[in-house]
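Hello Y.,

Per our agreement to keep a running log of every chain we model this quarter, I'm adding this entry. I've kept the format consistent with earlier entries: sequence first, then predicted structure.
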Amino acid sequence: MKNLATLVAAAIVTSSFQVPAIAQETAPALTTAQAGAADRLIDAGLEDDLAWDILESLTTEVGPRLGGSPAEARARDWGVAKLKSLGFKNVRIETYEMPYWARVSESAGIVSPYPQPLAVTALGGSIATPEDGVTGEVVRFPTLLELQAAPETGLEGKIVFVDEPMARTQDGSGYGTAVAKRSQAAVEAGKRGALAALIRSAGTDSHRNPHTGGAVRGAGKTAVPAAALSNPDADQLARALERAKGPVTVNLNLQVETKETVVSGNVVGEIPGQTDEIIVIGGHLDSWDLGTGAIDDASGIAITTAAAKLVGDLRGKPKRTIRVVMWGAEEVGIHGGKAYAEAHKDEMDKHVLAAESDFGAGRVYRFDTRFAEEEVGKAKVFEGALRRLAVTPGNNMAFGGADIGATRDLGVPVVSLRQDGTDYFDLHHTPDDTLDKVDPEDLRQNVAAWAAFLYIASELDGDFGRLPVRGDGQ
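Predicted structure for the entry above:
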């Protein structure tokens, strides 16, 4: 989950919505009937337990859903059945091919001078070690930058340990900096002839739950075996290095399974509108394999599906079609999001807006847009409707979500209903990502906010402009 550059940028952008004077003068307003309908949807969302039912169903009946795995295939079948049972139309699976990676086994431990096990997990895309693992002297780098600045000789036959911590923030902006080591440590270690790379988990908890996540995207493989230590175990290893009078030696054993090509897919369902214009929303159906993927991202699936159903139940046939997508294989390469944009590139002119829920189930506290400049004033309409939910104005720099990145790059405007992520990275990509961590009241507040947003987006006159189309490499 999450575009790293965007998360870093989110930490520095202004939190107040800057609306050009001309846009303010021409900003539309809801009719009395529309304002009343938005309020009724909020009331309904705050009392509705459908999202919880969906969330419980997916995490219990399927469980963890690694991209490209048989479990993800079962999740697609679950998604089709769920959308049909809720009355969605044109329900289907849109398949694509992708490479496959899965962990088989993983272990690590200090061999000397203080023999003991370490809590560790393989990073996605890691190559395997030999059957008996690799054993080497540990060399600690407090930050990724220090590893990158190190000479390209001197680490041969050793195990690199990048011990960079992550800052806890409401908006998740600490992740962009902390996670860079996840994708770069193995690269830098490999350049210098190291045996393997260990990192402090990209997470903010203090439990012995290491955080997994992709070390590489797509079909790539790491230069050397790569794994994450839980935060307490990273502390333990750092203390051992400080206390030892000589080298600290660690054994790391990672066994993985890979396949060049497997089939995955996106599950799609619609509430048909009166026009052929499309609002596309959703979450990603896959998850990492350590927990049950409740906050990342069964919650997003549940929130967007429940909100869309509320709008359909109230409106019958909205002005614009609401398309719910359960994107596949986001965690291991955003394969579903890219495949969706490719499959629908010829109808992108009909896509008027896109949004994804992929940051857990914390309360929505801010509403960001990325509209064409001449349409920015329309954000005020959403802002007014969401104010009663304590949702504050944002900016016009919305990311929208990883799975709609490729759609956004084809010119489609996006919004972000920003969630409180203060505790998100305590759970993210760990065995602790389970149903009991979701607060039902917060989940209902999300549904209420999404339902009001969707209704307004589907009914508002005019569109939200077009964004600049981005080519490959931009």
